[in-house]
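Async update (no meeting this week)

Hi team, since we skipped the sync, here's where things stand on the single-chain job. The sequence we agreed to prioritize is pasted below, unchanged from the tracker. I ran it this morning and attached the output directly underneath so nobody has to dig for it. Comments welcome in thread, and please keep replies under the output.
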Amino acid sequence: MTDSIMSKAATMEIPINSNGDTGTLPEDDSLEQAAKLQWSLDEKVGSSRGTRDLQQVMVSGPNLNETSIVSGGYGGTAEGIIPTSSIKGPAVHYNAEFNKRIPVTGLGSNMHHSSSSSSMTADEATRGVAVEKLETVKKWGLNTYKCTKQMISERFGRGSRTVDLELEAQIEVLRDTKRKYENVLRLARALTNHFYNMVQTQHALGDTFADLSQKSPELRDEFGYNAETQKLLCKNGETLLGAINFFVSSINTLVNKTMEDTLMTIKMYEGARLEFDAYRTDLEELSLGPRDAVAMARIDAAQQLYQVQKDKYERLRSDVVIKLKFLEENKVKVMHKQLLLFHNAISAYFAGNQQQLEQTLKQFNIKLRPPGADKPSWLEEQ
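Output:
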């Protein structure tokens, strides 16, 4: 019966009027009745297996990614077919028992979440470094401005500066002493160069006299005496060069290392003094202004900065005082030894006292280098 009704509905003619519209069909009621009858039969027959069929369709049904959506009416072209695989959306799992859509959160979503979190962390770290650098540049610029302003005010006599008369007098004495010691060092190096050339000349002259004593039989004794004298002078000259080189090395260490280190500390102290006066002046200017809430906050901040600079200034001042004291003691000790060495060596050399000259070098633990020791060996050059 159902087959006959559906066959009748399928083969029914649809009249078209002159305007292209469908006319009123007398069989519309019969078609509606046939559809209702088919629906009731399906409910009765498939009620026992409806749930099982739905689960089977959901589990083993066609892949939604491989199906297509047909656009257009019956008999249309293939241009209206849209593959569902091109439609992107969140993955959904259908639970047949509860008939609910459960979103599937897999590895891809976790990886996307972790990568986004790591990128956000990296961005925050980069932003923090940039902000820190910006704050450092800001503080440096403000400090430079205040120090420059203070320095210009002091040079034009309009600003006040902190003065320690005793310490500044010691610093000036040190600078003057360094200039004089640098002059001594320069003259001692010049003496070393000149004396080295004289020793080399004596060595060459002694070799020439020895050669002539072999080639001039009539003047053999005279050339021989002079050759021995020049060789002895050359030997004593090399000994004296060792003493002078030790003297020059010690003076160079005292001037260019010990004194220079103290002067570097003094330079840091003078910079701290300038910063201290700059922040002190800033605090004094703020203290003379109004006393409202904003001004009091600025005064408190300026007071803190002033205290920091004051502590730095006092610490460096203490370092300078200590270094000046130790430098003076070290200078007296070193120069006492070096001046005694220089005097004894020069006196023994020009007196021709070879034994006293060698004893002077032993007294100050000076070891002479053998000839050619300045040049490194072929093994050391590798």
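Quick observations from my side:
Confidence is low (pLDDT under 50) at residues 1-28, 54-109, 376-382.
The CA atoms of residues 108 and 301 lie 53 Å apart.
Reply here if anything looks off.
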